[in-house]
Amino acid sequence: MLKNYGIALILVLFVYVGNAQELKFGVHAEPIISFMDSDYSKIESEGLNPGFSLGVELEYYFTSADNYALTFGVDFSYNKGGTLLYEYGAVHFKNTELDNFDSYVNSQGIPATSGEIIEFQSFTRINYSINYLELPVGLKLRTNELGQSYMRAFFHIPIVKFGVPVTGSARIFDEAVDAAGYEDDLTGYQVNSDGEGFIREPNVWKDITPIQFSIGAGLGAEYSPNAEGGLRLAFGVYYDAGLIDVTNTFGGATVYTPAETNQNTAPSPISKSPRNA
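Below the sequence we write its predicted structure tokens.
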């Protein structure tokens, strides 16, 4: 099974460029939207993650006309991931030491004990939040100046990224989240704006695949009224997709089967108010 995520880089806020012959250096800040998906029919994409990316980029131009360049960079991307709905009860986070095992119910319907494999309920939703350090490489094509507007269009295609997850956390929405024991979790029992209860696990890094490759493309425009080597303002829209299963941890093919005591039925409504410890 493959769980890909796509990232739409909505806007490049600014780029400050220094010029040294064919080399140009810039910094950028970008809001991003990401999601996760699966090719397994019983796992559905259920939500988007807003985030942002900060980075630096080096452009090497082949000609003095500044129309073709190789780009190299280093980016830090915050809060990539998304929400997945698991229609079957299943075992999740096999490698993570969950904060308080008593907060989770095992296949016999009783609180799990430390070190025990935990089977989550049917229709559990998990929101993954992953911060990546990324190394993008791409080919950038720029048009000549459009009239006397100081504007140029650009096409960034393809862009290949190699990423390493720095941290990974998860919010777990489960039918049993309202059961006794959740309120004692070290991260606390919480309720979102829709009244759904959830537990936040701040460190599920061990269950995140330790590398990621993605490929994508982008297009936009640059505004440069200054002399070459001055300030350039750029904006554009980008999209890329991951090529490696995010939650597989290189453990072979990921297979989800129904938990022994969980029926594949929709959960009962979750309490609209938090419970006190």
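Residues 63 and 83 are 45 Å apart (CA to CA).
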